[in-house]
Hints:
Elements: H1 17-31, E1 35-36, E2 38-43, E3 46-50, E4 60-64, E5 71-75, E6 86-87, E7 95-103, E8 108-113, E9 116-121, E10 128-133, E11 138-140, H2 148-156, E12 160-161, H3 178-184, H4 190-199, H5 206-219, E13 222-227, E14 232-237, E15 247-251, H6 254-302, H7 306-318, E16 329-334, E17 339-344, H8 351-394, H9 399-409, E18 428-432, E19 436-440, H10 444-454, E20 460-464, E21 472-474, H11 485-497, E22 507-513, E23 517-518, E24 529-530, E25 534-538, E26 546-549
Antiparallel strand pairs: 1-7, 2-3, 2-6, 3-4, 4-5, 7-8, 7-12, 8-9, 9-10, 10-11, 13-14, 13-15, 16-17, 18-19, 18-26, 19-21, 20-21, 20-22, 22-25, 23-24
Amino acid sequence: MQFFPLSITYRKMFKDYHYLNRSVIELNLELTGLVINEIFTQEKEKLFLHIPDDKVPQRHLIISANSQEPYLLIKNEHYKAKKNTINFFSENLPDRIQRIEIALSDRLIKISLQFASIFFRIAGRKTNIYFLKSSGDLQSFKTINETTEEIITILNGESYTSSENKINKRIDSSSVSFQSAKKDNPFISRELFNEILIRCKKGSDITAVLDECVVEVLRDRIKIGYDRANNNAFFLPEKFYAADTIEQNSFDSYNEALQNYLFLNYAFARFINLKNQLTQVIEKEILYLSNKLNNLSVRIDKGPQDLIYYKYGRMLLANFGLLRKGIRGIKLFDPESNEELIIKLNPEHSAKESVDYYFSKAKDEKISFKKSEELFESTLAKFHKYKAINDSLFNTQSYDELKKISSKIIIKKNIKMEKFGEDTPRYRTFLIEGKFEVMVGKDSRSNDLLTMKIARQNDYFFHARGYAGSHVILKVTNTKEPVPKNVLIKVASIAAYFSKAKTSGTAPVAYTLRKFVRKAKGLNPGQVIVSKEKVLLVKPEIPSNAEEISDYESN
């Protein structure tokens, strides 16, 4: 038989049977003879047993009945929360601890009191805490699926010990596997079995190696560390295989080691969660910026279209008599190219509105193209910055470094919102035709802030008429330049889309200048009084040329 080193983890070894046995021995030394004054919960799946004495008045034994992270832990300085606590088994307290034991054949811990017993059963999804009175009455911490009789039979059918339980049966080295070893030795965890395999050489006595490892679990110093390569926190005896390969601290006490491990694991989980969050945000922003650069590049390569729009306007003016409402396009001869051109028209426009549309579009095009060039340069710089941040994020090892990165990239898009505090609701922001900025509230509170605090007097206010929905603001940067009617229609479509009229074929949307919107005393959040409004009948949609701006932007 030949053995090979395995890639293993010791992340959950604190719940190994032999380590729980060690925990019971330590708990006996500290808690036997003391009185449990109160039992309560203030965190999900955890019971807190208040066990004070004159020297340690705030001592609590914490029992975690979480199936993935079950444990018993003494905290000498713990204070009961003032709110959101629930007491358990109060009618049977106070009561004195007689002894603490572990079952000889299962991860079942018994705290014997004068008039009752507390059982902590670790059994996967059935992990639970039970309170069994001497009268035979049974109470449980979590809901149980088994009958009371079945549970009592399990609890009373075990033999218990408060000393070291090192009994192990011989392992057949000719057909060794975790399943076969566990069948004969139910105390063997996968971590313990893997350690045995790593230590064994051809011809080794596996049972002797098992005994050696068990003694180390029961008696040796415990090392706590963090393996950055595999993103694992470690809890293991200092003589185990991986102990010399990780950053670590060692402890004589199981309780102290567990307390440090849980803190390290919490810090590690916090680190990983923030790193994953930042990675997701940065990758999303890089993709967004990449798509934006591609679109802008196509726009710039195409060149300014103002001369084409001027041509369309002149051709329509020359053929004014052929224009009428209801047509979606017209075919006209172009003497410059000696070809016929098809010019698209809005069927709702009059002849004058169709001509004005293309002349206005030609005028806007010069400004829009210049802005597109400027936007391409600023977007490219931002793209390179995010790529650099993404590269540095991969090698970031500390939570503080992640917080520095977070402070650079998770900033709300609209700077004016920051003065209302970190809990200010976010807004959707759209850019129409690369020029007109549209802001959409997400709830009643953000509607009020958007309309009454952020919007300026000459901005446009939109709201679906007769339907609950978002306040929508169209920013006006130049009051001397009128907003094209087609832009007003597109903003109205957005307002209808973010309202209860979203699924309608068409919806009425009222609009007016912000200065004609006021908030009367006593109105509910999001409710306003509007005057001098006009109404547009539009299709609820986000227009094709309305670009939604992302929630995050770097400094």
